[in-house]
TrEMBL record:
UniProt xrefs under PANTHER family: CADHERIN RELATED FAMILY MEMBER 1 (PTHR24026:SF121), FAT ATYPICAL CADHERIN-RELATED (PTHR24026)
Residue ranges with Pro residues bias: 708-725
Gene Ontology molecular function: any one: calcium ion binding
Region listing for Disordered, in residue ranges: 689-759
Name of the featured protein: Photoreceptor cadherin
Membrane association type: Single-pass membrane protein
Domain Cadherin, first and last residues per copy: 25-119, 120-229, 284-397, 398-501, 498-612
Localization per Swiss-Prot or TrEMBL: Membrane
One GO cellular component term: plasma membrane
InterPro entries recorded: Cadherin-like_dom, Cadherin-like_sf, Cadherin_CS
Annotated GO biological process: anatomical structure morphogenesis; homophilic cell adhesion via plasma membrane adhesion molecules
Length: 784
């Protein structure tokens, strides 16, 4: 299979993270330019190759950021101004040197309180008649703050002056004649009023600040006829008194002549006869609607709404509260308490509640309810927000991992599993494309639209070759946002292999009372397809063997306890029987195979003591038995050499030999010293595993025959005796020594892919032990 090379990819950690692919990352406009990183581009390569990062902008646009290609650290290189550009489009890239991935992301510039309010329609010059009633509205000043949130809200007040005849509504900017004050053209024809516009304050470079602006309003008082009579109405309790004052005499120049002057005071008491009313740009309005993108930042003013509320009554009758009814804590309204008139500001409080996927339309009720009046007049306006979708979601799999099972030897193109990922965004942003990658994915493919995973057309899965696969699936939208899930595939085993013996004809040697074992191997991967049951098909002689169905151990029937019984059954000296054994697996369908086992029946030589127990335990491991025998012989030789050396050193020091006992050495005079050599085990065929050969004899001569005896040992030569202190009549003393050498003739080469087979005959090992003991005994017969 060819080696796949997959493209690197960014981590998408969401807009609140400071590392990833920079998608929907937000940065404050007062962030200082410098070397400190504002973000870290972070991604990886599936093959774990080193990656490099890049960052570019559209041609002709301002480049605000720079990235270190190795570390991914992004720094700010140009000052930001949200009021000029609140969104920056950036192309971020990641490459492993062969594949390059480029993603276009949007970076949002968040607001700080860096803009003071700006007065509109300057200069403010107004003309009013001198008889304008106190409390009357004469002008409305307006200032706009480009900041968002509390920093974009504006309130008004007049600079303190003890002689001012005017007042201003702090929310609406409406300038009125102060209650209790009158204007007089003859006294003061022009008034100059300084209006201060103040924002709601906010943070700038880590500190809270409030910004203000001032403007001067020039008020020209217009002269009017001072002498006139009006009709006044006084509403007292439940009756009305009408006072009418007429001029008694009017002269030719509209000057009173021959008249009496009477002062009449008329007090007009307000009647609460006006409910609060909402106004739009074109007059009274009870429904306000705006279209905007989802997820505006918290604190943003919804400037699409142009709402003014007014109560034409005076005093306490004109005081009311504003309240917004709808999804809890999504929006809030400012101000909450109004006297006469105010501009209504709606501010975002919970950006997660303004979500296109939760609903393309948000509806609220704006209520204005009088506070301290018995009538409790109120007004209601509908607030409707139509949302536009953004690609603010990533495709999400229904599960973090999928587990599938597929039968082995399924044809290419077979269905394995189906994965599903959902993207709640609308349009192309909500369309999901599936891909597959990973070390185990080469044998599988996935439908890019449906997520159906199948095997490749040329693939044939084999549980005996590989039964477990895992790889990743990727769900990606049109802008490259993605998520991953892991797929685990298990290739289920089918019974497509029959049990196999190493050989169809097996030679075994059985000691009466001891079983021999055969074994077959089934290459299927799972149980019960690779579980084997053994049975005897036929045997010669019949009804002579039993077999363990699970282990394959063959043993004689319980009544066969000696060689005499065996010979009575066969009527021959040749005790070689045969049995046909079947090995059958437990799969469905079941497969079987047979092997012929020729069994040479023998009887164990009685042995006693620990050596016998050891040889019985080691009958299935000839190398272990041979190693132990070799060790024993080496110890005996070593002990003999040590004794000889010690005696020699003792005699050398005393310059004489002091015999503790008489030693008579019997040997032919012309016999040469002999060297003991370890008999060699010859592994030529199963029937001759433990035949012992003499390396000094002819190749055809077998030591297994008791007719041949090894030559008697010859004592080794003694070192020269010391020249002095020897007694003249004393015979020299011979020191018994034994020397030996162990030589290995060879070993049988183990088979490469099967277990070692072979039960070792305890009878032959016993014979080997007897031969070794005989040699040692004959060695020692020369000394007494």
């Amino acid at each position: 299979l060819r080696q796949s090379d997959y493209a690197p990819y960014f981590y998408d950690n969401g807009p609140s993270s400071t590392n990833g692919n920079m998608a929907l990352f937000s940065i404050s406009e007062d962030t200082p330019v410098g070397k400190a990183p504002i973000y870290i581009l972070n991604g990886t390569d599936p093959e774990e190759d080193p990656v490099r990062y890049g960052l570019t902008f559209e041609k002709g646009s301002t480049e605000y950021f720079r990235v270190d290609p190795n570390s991914g650290n992004v720094t700010l290189i140009q000052e930001l101004d949200r009021e000029k550009q609140d969104e920056i489009s950036v192309h971020v890239s990641i490459t492993d040197g062969r594949n390059k991935v480029v993603e276009t992301v949007r970076v949002f510039v968040t607001d700080t309180n860096d803009e003071p309010p700006e007065f509109q329609n300057l200069p403010f010059i107004i003309d009013i008649p001198e008889d304008t009633a106190p409390g009357s509205s004469i002008y409305r000043v307006q200032a706009v703050d480009k900041d968002m949130g509390s920093g974009g809200s504006v309130s008004y007040y007049l600079q303190t002056s003890p002689f001012t005849k005017f007042t201003i509504d702090g929310h609406s900017g409406i300038l009125r004649v102060k209650l209790g004050e009158t204007l007089d053209f003859e006294t003061t024809p022009t008034h100059f009023v300084t209006v201060v516009a103040k924002d709601g304050g906010g943070k700038y470079k880590g500190k809270h600040q409030v910004l203000t602006s001032t403007a001067t309003v020039t008020i020209n008082v217009i002269d009017s006829q001072d002498i006139k009579f009006d009709y006044g109405y006084c509403f007292c309790l439940h009756y009305v008194d009408l006072y009418e004052i007429k001029a008694s005499e009017v002269g030719p120049n509209n000057e009173l002549q021959d008249y009496d002057v009477t002062t009449v005071t008329v007090r007009v008491v307000d009647l609460n006869n006006h409910p609060p009313t909402f106004y739009g740009e074109n007059g009274p309005q009870n429904k306000f609607e705006v279209t905007m993108y989802e997820h505006p930042p918290a604190g943003e003013i919804l400037r699409g709404f142009k709402i003014t509320v007014n109560d034409s009554d005076q005093g306490a009758n004109a005081k009311f509260k504003l309240r917004l009814v709808g999804p809890n804590r999504v929006l809030r309204v400012v101000p909450q308490t109004v006297l006469n008139e105010a501009q209504v500001t709606i501010i975002v409080e919970d950006t997660s509640g303004i979500d296109y996927e939760k609903g393309p339309t948000l509806s609220f009720k704006l209520l204005a309810v009088e506070i301290d009046t018995p009538e409790r007049f109120s007004a209601t306006a509908d607030i409707v927000i139509n949302l536009l979708d953004t690609n603010d979601n990533i495709p999400k799999f229904t599960s973090e991992y999928y587990i599938a099972r597929v039968p082995e030897n399924s044809p290419g193109g077979s269905s394995v599993s189906s994965v599903t990922a959902n993207d709640p965004d609308s349009g192309s942003w909500g369309e999901v494309k599936y891909t597959i990658y990973g070390s185990g994915s080469d044998l599988f493919s996935i439908n890019a639209s449906s997520g159906l995973i199948t095997t490749q057309p040329w693939t044939s899965l084999d549980a005996e070759v590989r039964s477990k696969y895992n790889f990743y699936v990727k769900a990606e939208d049109s802008e490259g946002k993605y998520s991953l899930a892991e797929v685990f595939v298990t290739v289920t085993d089918m019974n497509d292999h029959a049990p196999e013996f190493d050989e169809v004809l097996v030679e075994k040697t059985m000691i009466i009372g001891t079983p021999v074992k055969i074994e077959a191997v089934d290459e299927d991967a799972e149980s019960p397809n690779n579980v084997i049951e053994y049975s005897i098909m036929t045997a010669d002689p019949d009804n002579a063997f039993d077999i363990n169905a699970d282990t394959g151990e063959i043993k004689l029937k319980p009544y066969i306890k000696s060689m005499e019984i065996v010979q009575n059954i066969t009527k021959q000296k040749d005790c070689k029987w045969s049995v046909v054994v079947q090995a059958r697996d437990r799969g469905s369908p079941s497969f079987s195979t047979t092997a012929v086992i020729n069994i040479d029946i023998t009887e164990a030589t009685p042995l006693k003591g620990p050596m016998a127990a050891f040889l019985m335990k080691s009958r299935d491991n000839p190398l272990k038995a041979l190693g132990m025998v070799t060790f024993i012989i080496s110890v005996l030789v070593g002990v003999t050499v040590l004794i000889s050396t010690a005696m020699y050193m003792r005699n050398s020091k005393s310059n004489r030999i002091m015999p503790a006992r008489r030693i008579i050495k019997r040997r032919p005079r012309d016999q040469q010293p002999w060297t003991f050599k370890m008999p060699v085990i010859k592994f030529t065929n199963p029937g001759e595993k433990f035949l012992i050969t003499d390396p000094e004899s002819s190749p055809q001569q077998k030591i297994g025959s008791p007719r041949l005896k090894p030559p008697p040992p010859i004592a080794p030569c003694l070192p020269p005796p010391p020249p002095s202190n020897a007694r003249p009549n004393e015979r020299p003393r011979a020191v018994p020594t034994i020397s030996g050498a162990l030589a290995s003739k060879g070993s049988k080469k183990a088979k490469s892919s099967r277990r070692k087979e072979g039960n070792i005959s305890s009878a032959l090992v016993s014979e080997l032990k007897m031969k070794l003991e005989q040699k040692i005994h004959e060695n020692n017969q020369g000394y007494y």
